[in-house]
Structures are given as C-alpha cells and as structure tokens.
Amino acid sequence: MAQPTPIEELVGFLSSPRQEIRMIACGNLVGYSSGPQKSIFKASSLKPIKDLKILVRDHPNISENAVSILINLSDDRAVLTLLANDDDFLELLFSLITNPSYPAADYIAMLLANMAKHEVVPEKILKLKREKPKPEWKVSDSENAMDQLMDLFVKGSNKTLNKNANFDYLAYLFADIAGNTEGRKHFVKAQEYDKVIPITKLIVFTEHASLIRRKGVASTIKNSLFEISSHPKMALDSSVNLLPYLLLPLMGPEEYPDEESLDMPAEVQLLPPDKKRETDNTVVAAHLESIMLLTTTREIREKLRELQVYPIIREVHLAVEDEEVRDICERIVNVLQRDEVEEERIQEVEDEEEDDDIVPLV
C-alpha cells in the first residue's frame, strides 16, 4: 500500500480532534487549493470538502482559511453542488456574514457569490427566511435573507458595520440572482420590508471607488432590465430615476452644445472639466447594454431621444477604443436615430401585402 504524500497527510489532519493541528493543516493547504494539486480535496468522495465545511465554524483563523480554500475549489461542479445543496451550510454562512465581529465576512461574500453560480442557490436565497440579526448589531431588521444581504451591502460599504469587511463581493452575488427570473422581479419591485425598490439602493454605487462594486452593480442593473415590464418604472418614474446613474459613468470631460446639453437629465449637466469616464470597459459595456435594453419599447426610445442620450453615446464611441463598446454604441445609435414613423408606414404596407396574399377558404 502506497504511503500518503505530505499533502495527503495534511488533508487528513483537517479532521484532527486537536485545534492546533487543524489550524496548521488548514493554513498550509490554502496554497494548494488553487494549484495543480487541488484535486486532492476531492479524494474519498469529497471528504476533505465535508471537513472544510465543518471548519468554517471553527476558530476564526481556521474558519478564514477554510473559506478561502472553498472559494478556490468552488469552480469545480462537484464541489459547488455539494455546497449548494447543503441548507445548513448556507445558514452557517449567513450567521457569519451578518455577525459584525466575524473577521472574514468578505470571504463569506466571495463564497456566496461563487455558490450563486449553481442554479439552486439564487432561488434558495430569495426564499430564505432566518432569524433577524441582533438589534445591537444594527445590521438589519428583516428576517428575509435577501434584505439582510442588501442591508449589509448598503450600510457596510465603508466598513461601518464590520471593521474588516466592505461587502463589495455581494454585488457579484446580486448580479447572479438578477440573472434568475424571480431575482429580476425582486430587484425591480418594492419590498414589503421597507417599501423600497432594491435596485434604487444599488444604482447609487455606479461610480463607487471599488471596481468590484461597480462591476457587480452594473451587471445587476443590466440583468434586472431583462424584466421588460419594469422599464417605465425604471426609466420614467422620478422615484427610481435610473437613467442618470447609467449615463454618468459613461461621461467624460466633453462639452456639449446648449441645444444638446439643456435637454439632458439635470444630473449630467454642468459636469466639472475633470470628469472621469469609467475606466473599465466591461462596466462601460454593461451600462450601454442596459441602455440598449431600455430601447425595447417605443415609449422609452422617445424619452431617450428627448433627453439627448444620443450625443452621449456618440462621445463614448469616439473616446473608447474597445470593439465591444463601439459595437453596442452603434446599435444604440441605430435604434435612436431611426425614423419610427417611416418604419411604421413600411410595416403597415408589408402587413397589407401579406393580407393580399391570403387566399380565403371556400
């Protein structure tokens, strides 16, 4: 019988009854969880993964390392499925992330974001009800898991809830949840908890200093806008006022003639000469795709024309040297610049011609 390798021995020590042994083993194994030897964690029907799930509730140092390893391994479908289908483990993660004294809350946010890649997790989180966090923690007054996550994201953005966590990675979790049909509906509908539409809590972060937060929020907005019925509320209702939050990251130091700028949303007029455009092209593309989605209905298209969105897109196309960004810009321009009346007339003629081709039954 072959002797176990040093790494195999370390993995075996994850279940040691002695805390100091578990701490040494877990700490030393973090580096192997993202390298070519990561398959060692899938041995014995995923027993090491089961051990790591237990260690998440161990000493804080052990817990942080265990979560780090699980983050690195959760891109494996078998590991992801084991984590996603464990409701008790999901509750454990929520109990830790909502505890302001837990030092590795941002690691939990990363793990939850990875777990949301499994199709069952967004639905579970949307439906999950759990005990409210302690009132003295000032985290959330809701028993809904989604409300608690949103409160963490908004209230804790500057480490004001947890001195070790800013919860930025929850933005990626929200983006995956918004990729789910029920998730989209959640983000665009006022919640019973506070009567607020969740997307309005996120749009204020489109120009946040954290790229992680900006990326996740941009993707969440875009995914939520696949709920076409929400567009009038999102684009036309002043209580949401989505459009300026999509346009501001797209705008740089350009000056527009009065006949264009005076019709733009007030929030994007008179910007300072040192205004910086979003530097990450994936975020720029996401906001452009959100605007493209808003062009789905004629009502919103007319509003976008009225608010002089075209000149802003024109400047993005000129300033950003990225093929994907320019392609989306061109598609938006083609939609906004087309003649709606002429298109309707052509469609009516085509419909009449089709009617003429119909042979009645006799």
From TrEMBL:
Domain Protein HGH1 N-terminal as annotated: residue spans: 97-284
The family this protein is said to belong to: Belongs to the HGH1 family.
Lineage: Eukaryota, Fungi, Dikarya, Ascomycota, Pezizomycotina
Residue span, Protein HGH1 C-terminal domain: 290-344
Family annotation (PANTHER family): PROTEIN HGH1 HOMOLOG
Organism: Orbilia ellipsospora
A Pfam family the protein falls into: DUF383
Name of the protein described by the UniProt record: Protein HGH1 homolog
InterPro entries assigned: ARM-like (IPR011989), ARM-type_fold (IPR016024), Hgh1 (IPR039717), Protein_HGH1_C (IPR007206), Protein_HGH1_N (IPR007205)
